[in-house]
Amino acid sequence: MRTAFLAASAALALAIPLAAQEAAKPTYPAPSEIVAAAPKADWTAIPAEDLLVMTLAPDAEGKPRQVVIQLMPAPFSQGWVHNIRLFARAKWYDNISVNRVQDNYVTQWGDPNYDNPEATGKPKPLPDRLKVVPESDYLTRYSVMSSMNRQTRQMVTRTDPPLAGPRVKDAYGDSTFSNGWPIGIYKPANEPPVLHPTHCYGMVGVGRNYSPDTGSGAELYTVIGHAPRHLDRNIALVGRVIEGMEHLSSLPRGKGELGFYAKDEAAKRTPILTVRVASDLAPSEQPAFEYLSTESETFAAYADAIANRRDPFFITPAGGADICNIRVPVRRVQ
Amino acid sequence: MRTAFLAASAALALAIPLAAQEAAKPTYPAPSEIVAAAPKADWTAIPAEDLLVMTLAPDAEGKPRQVVIQLMPAPFSQGWVHNIRLFARAKWYDNISVNRVQDNYVTQWGDPNYDNPEATGKPKPLPDRLKVVPESDYLTRYSVMSSMNRQTRQMVTRTDPPLAGPRVKDAYGDSTFSNGWPIGIYKPANEPPVLHPTHCYGMVGVGRNYSPDTGSGAELYTVIGHAPRHLDRNIALVGRVIEGMEHLSSLPRGKGELGFYAKDEAAKRTPILTVRVASDLAPSEQPAFEYLSTESETFAAYADAIANRRDPFFITPAGGADICNIRVPVRRVQ
Questions:
Q1: CB B321 to CB A230 under 8 A?
Q2: Distance from B80 to chain A by nearest Cα, in Å?
Q3: Which of A81, A301, A305, B207 could form a disulfide with A6 if both were Cys (CB 3.0 to 4.6 A apart)?
C-alpha cells in the first residue's frame, strides 16, 4: 500500500527483466498484505458508544466533511471520556470550530472564544455535571494475575488490561499495545510500572491550562505531525481519529500565536456543525468499525513486518520501529 | 513557543494565584528560549548554492506561495544534489506539479506524466548529463583522526564529517547531528559504521522505482507526517524544507493509489511555476538563512531541554527524544 515510492503500476513491474524476476529472493508480504489476509476472528468490533461522529461544514466545493473519532475504552482516561460524551449529548460541541492548526503539531477545536488569545467574542457556558479529573489519571495502574495451566502445568501470567501485544523499545521507553491502543509502560523510580496512551499521529487529546488543570474536554486536539511524545503523561489522551483525518490535517495553518488563527483570519476557522455519539444516531446512520486485535498473531506478524520491511521495494530493513509507526489497523464495516 | 496547549496569554498567567507563583519551582527555559538566547557565533550561514527557491502557483485567494529547500552538503547524497541543481538550471522543474499527497506520509512533485499511475499525458524528456547514482551512495563513510592536544597532552579524536553533536538512541539505532543535519549511524555486521540522513518531518527525498534504480531527482517528495524511518538507507535524502512547509503539508490529499491525485481530480495538482538555485537569483532576490550549529553548546542544551521538558507547562519530562523531535533550528536573515 505504501511501499512503492514513485509508482507501483503493473506496467512497471513487468518492465523488470524476466531473468531478475526468476532469480528473485523469497518474497515477503508487505504489512498491508498481512492485514488484508487476517482471519475475520482477528478483528474486534468497536462499540457504537465509543464512536464520535463529527460533522464539519462542507468544504469550498460543497463536499461534506465527516470525521469519526474512536474514544478510549476503560481503564484509560475515563473521566475525560465521560465528559466528552456529556458535551456531545448536551450538543455543546455544536457550532464550535477548529481554531488552531500548527504545522507538524496539532489541529485543535473548541469554543473559539474560550481561552483563545485570538478570541473575538464571549465564551459559551459549560454544561453541568462535568468531572474534574485529577492529574493522577494521566497514568493507569494494571494488575497481574498468575495461574496454572492444567494441561501444560506451567504458570501463566496475564495482566488486566492485557499487555500481550508486541513489545517496542524506543527513545521514550517501553511500550506495547492493549485492546487496540498504543500504550507506554512507564517505570517511575521505586514504584510499580504504570500505563499511559502515547501521542501518535491522529491521537486525540484534551487541551488544558497550566497544572493542576487537566482540561474538561471542551477543547480537543489531534496530532497532525511527528509524534510529540513529550506530551505523554502531561496531557490526557482520549481517542483517535479513525476516518476523515485528512479533513483536519490539510486545513490551512494559523498565523497567530501557537498556530491559532489570528483575528484577521477568523474566516479560516472551520465550523463544526454537530458532534454525536454514534449510539445516539438512528441505526441506519450509525457507522461501524473494527480494529485488528493487537493480541492476535496477525498483529504480531504485522508489527514484525513493519520493523523489518522485506517486501520488494526495500533494500535494507530498519530492524526496528517506534510505537507510532506501528499503526493499529482500523476498518469500516457495513 | 509550543509549550502551552490551550492558551498562554498574559491574562491566564495572571490568573494563577500569587501564592503559587511565589512558591514556584526553579524555572527552566523552554527549548525555544534557549535558541533565542544563542550567541550569534553559534549560527552558521547556509550557502546560496545550497538553497532552492520553489514558487508554486498562488493559492485560491491569490496569495503567493514560496517554498525554500536547503540541499544537503557534502559528503551526503552529492550525486543526486548535482542532478537537482542541473534540473533547476535547465528549468526542467518549471511547470511541473505536485502530483501526490498521502496523509501522514509524503507530498511528492514532478512531471505529472512520468511514472504516475494517474498520468493524463506524455512525459517530458530528461536533461542530459544526469548522473546515475549507485545504491551504495545511500550510505556515507566517515574518517576518524586522532591527535595529541599539546597543552593537555591528551589524545583528541575527531571525525570527518563532524559527529560531535548530541547522541540519540531510538528505535532505529544510534544517531546524532552533523553540520546541521540529523544523521543515523548504521552499524552493518562485521563492517565499520556508516552514516545516512534520517527521514524526519520536512526532509526532502528522491522518488525512485524498484532497486537498482535510485531515482534521478526528477521526482522529489517531502515528509508530511510521522517520520517514516523505514525509508532510511532505502531512498536518497537530499535536503529539507526550511520555509513554506505549510504550502506542501496542507494540500488536499489525493484519492488515487498511494495518494496520487486521481484522473478525475487532476485539477488539484498544484502547479510549480519555477525552481531556482538561490545563487542564480539577482542578489536582491536571494533569500538568506542560517542554522544553529549542531556542534555548539547551545544546541546540546537545546537537545537536552527537548528530552527533559521542565518549562512550566510540563509535569513529568519524557527523559528522552527521538532524532526527529530534535529539529535543527533554521532562521531567515536579512
A1: yes
A2: 16
A3: B207
**How would you write the pLDDT of chain B (334 residues) with one tens digit per residue?**
233 454 333 333 334 444 444 455 567 899 999 999 999 999 999 999 999 999 999 999 999 999 999 999 999 999 999 999 999 999 999 999 999 999 999 999 999 998 777 777 889 999 999 999 999 999 999 999 999 988 999 999 999 999 999 999 999 999 999 999 999 999 999 999 999 999 999 999 999 999 999 999 999 999 999 999 999 999 999 999 999 999 999 999 999 999 999 999 999 999 999 999 999 999 999 999 999 999 999 999 999 999 999 999 999 999 999 999 999 999 999 8
| Cβ within 8 Å of residue B86, ≥6 positions away | B127, B129, B130, B217
Which residue from B117, B253, B323 is facing A246, i.e. has the nearest CB?
B253
Q: Which residues of B touch A321 (CB under 8 A)?
A: 171-172, 229-230
* For chain A, domain boundaries: 25-333
Q: Tell me which residue of A108, A329, A326 sits closest to A223, measured CA to CA.
A: A108
Contacts of B309 in chain A (CB under 8 A): 230, 234
Amino acid at B59: D
What is the Cα gyration radius of chain B? 22
Which CATH fold would you assign to the domain A25-333?
Cyclophilin (2.40.100)
User: Measured between alpha carbons, how far is A135 from A65 in angstroms, rounded to an integer?
Assistant: 34
The CA distance from B104 to the nearest CA of chain A, in Å, is: 7
**Contact assignment for B1 to A258 by CB distance below 8 Å:** yes
Best of B208, B226, B327 to disrupt the A interface (most A CBs within 10 Å) is B226
Which chain B residues contact residue A225 at CB under 8 A?
A: 201, 225-226
Beta strands A181-186 and A194-197, pairing class = antiparallel
Q: Is domain B26-333 annotated with CATH 2.40.100.10?
A: yes
Q: Is B198 helix (H, G, I), strand (E, B) or coil?
A: coil
User: Which chain B residues have a beta carbon less than 8 Å from that of A10?
Assistant: none
The nearest alpha carbon in chain B to A116 belongs to B7
